[in-house]
Structures are given as C-alpha cells and as structure tokens.
C-alpha cells in the first residue's frame, strides 16, 4: 500500500529511476554518498543483510559483459533483501530476434520492482525507463553514462581524501568511448573537483573543450600536481577504426607507470574502473602498488548501489497512489506523456 506522507529520508526527492548523473543535483549526489557510508559499515559485518525490501524483485538485464558491476548489483540487492534474477542474455530470446523493448516489457509483466540495465546502445536506459512500471538503473549504456560507477568513484575519492571540492583529478585514456569518463565529468565536476582529461587527440570526443575540463595530450604535463588519477581502459570493442598505432606505443605515451606518475602530488591516488589491461593503460606496479584504490572502488560499489536501490524504492513507495496506476494503464510500449527525464 502506498504511504500518504512523504518520507523523512534526507535524500533524493524525484529520484524514481537512475539513468544518468547529469540531471542530478550536488545535494542528491552527496545524499547518496552519505547513505552509502552506512552500507560500507554494514558490508564489513558478519551479517551483511539489512532486508529493508524483502519480498521485492530485482532483475539484472546485462546485454554486455560484466564481472564487477553485475555481481555488485546482485549483492547490493540481496543485502537489502530483494530477490534477484539475472538474465543470461546468451541463452535468452534475444538470440531469437526479440527486441530490447519486447524483452524489457516481458520482464516488466512479471512485476519486478527494479530493473538494472546494461546495453551497448547509448540512450537505451532513457528509452526504457519511462516504458517500465518499475525503477530502472543504468549500469552503463554504450558511450553515454554509467552513473553508479561515477558515484562509487566519488565515494572512494571522498573517503580517501576527505573531500572532493578543489581536488585536481585527471581522467586518462580512452575518453572517447568511455561512459565512465562522461559520468565522472558530471559527477566530480558537480562536487567541485578540478578536472583534467589526458588522451591522444584521436581518443577525445569532438567538442570536449566545452566540458570545462582542461585538456592535455601529454601525461608529463597533465599529471603535474594531480591529487587523483582515474585510468581508463582502451575500449577496443567500441573502436571502429585505428585510434593508435600499437598497444606498445600507447603504453609508452599514455600507460601509467612509475615514471609518468612522478610529477603527480606525492600523495596522489590511482583509480581504474576495471577491467584492467595491464601493460596497456596501467603498469602492474601501479595497479598493485600503495597508491592504488582499485579494490576499494569495488568494495564501495556495493555500498553505493545499495544506497541507490534504497533511494529509488523508497521514493516509489511514497509516490502518489495514482502515478503507478497511470503508467500501468498505458498500452505496452507506449511512452508516458512528459515522462522522458525520470532521473
Ligand atoms: C566500465 C564499463 O563497463 O563501462 N567497467 C565497469 O563497469 N566496471 C569500464 C570498462 O569497461 O572499461
């Protein structure tokens, strides 16, 4: 039954799906990060469950490969008490020609409370969110956004440095194909970080100057006095042409090793969303070294996703009673009027 009064939760009014960071406010982001802190503590306990949402159903619909994001969402949902179903796309009706929309509406008819979507098309999450009766979380759509990755990166940096505002943060590598870079530009920028992008010009999107970040084509210049470096994977699966001559040459110019790290601040920290290509964008000595927060990012990812799931389900519980009914009355696949930006 819908509750009549709004929740006294300190976070995220209007958050009924999470498809992107861009439309969020700094206050919403900060509230999610604050909430995630509780879930880090919970996940370190022997009993990791806080079944706030037992009896609810979460469906994980991953059209692209994933190790950490998918298991992180599964674990996050389970720790909050949700029953979890992960669709095995390789053995699903997608192989028989079913469209994304038909697949999603089929699952929607089973009355899930939350769908987590990863898809290779930019915009897939914004396309589906208004067509489903439940909350949708974007777990990465093409080169568009990966909002929970940006939230977990922000949480990891904030915990390690005590703040985000005023930090010099460099994002290095394949910016062109990276939804992580896009979400991080919005998220870290909204929280007051000073951002630099370091990449060969072939791996930067057109118009990137308008992002507000400083652009560099040399690691030696771009890493001067940086507090944090986020290294990105070369996303070869999205490359349609030649963007660099060889991986060896790429590593020589852009792979993060001890020599390239030297001009950074002495307490500079290194992040990578994973999966890593060792010896291509990052040297093992850095990935496994004392400045690396790569495993901490993974730990914090579960906590951030718990906070997001909690925020979405809580807000939906307090929606006016008519809202869901109105969505449910639409013919299958028909978009809700004005329902586009349900962040
Ligand atoms: C990233 C992704 O899928 O966008 N990985 C992740 O979610 N941890 C980055 C990548 O694949 O390189």
Q: What report would you give on this structure?
A:
- This protein is of the alpha/beta class and 343 residues long.
- It has 12 helices and 9 strands.
- It has helices spanning 26-43, 68-79, 100-108, 124-128, 147-161, 179-190, 219-222, 247-254, 258-261, 284-287, 294-317, 321-328, and strands spanning 57-62, 83-87, 114-119, 135-141, 168-172, 194-198, 214-216, 228-231, 269-271.
- The strands form 2 sheets. It has a 5-stranded parallel β-sheet with strand order 7-6-5-8-9. The chain has a 4-stranded parallel β-sheet with strand order 2-1-3-4, with helices on both faces.
- Strand 5, helix 6 (179-190) and strand 6 (194-198) form a beta-alpha-beta unit.
- The longest helix is centred in the last third of the chain and has 24 residues, at 294-317.
- The radius of gyration is 20 Å and the shape is globular.
At a glance:
The protein is α/β, with parallel strands linked by helices. 36% of the residues lie in helices and 13% in strands.
Oligomeric composition of the shown chains: single chain
Q: Over the alpha carbons, how many angstroms does the gyration radius reach?
A: 20 Å
**Structural class of the helices, strands and pairings?**
alpha/beta
Strand count = 9
H/E topology pattern: HEHEHEHEHEHEEHEHHEHHH
The fraction of residues in strands falls at 5-15%
Taken from the alpha-carbon principal axes, the silhouette is globular
Mean pLDDT: 90
What molecules are bound to this protein? Answer: N-carbamoyl-L-aspartate
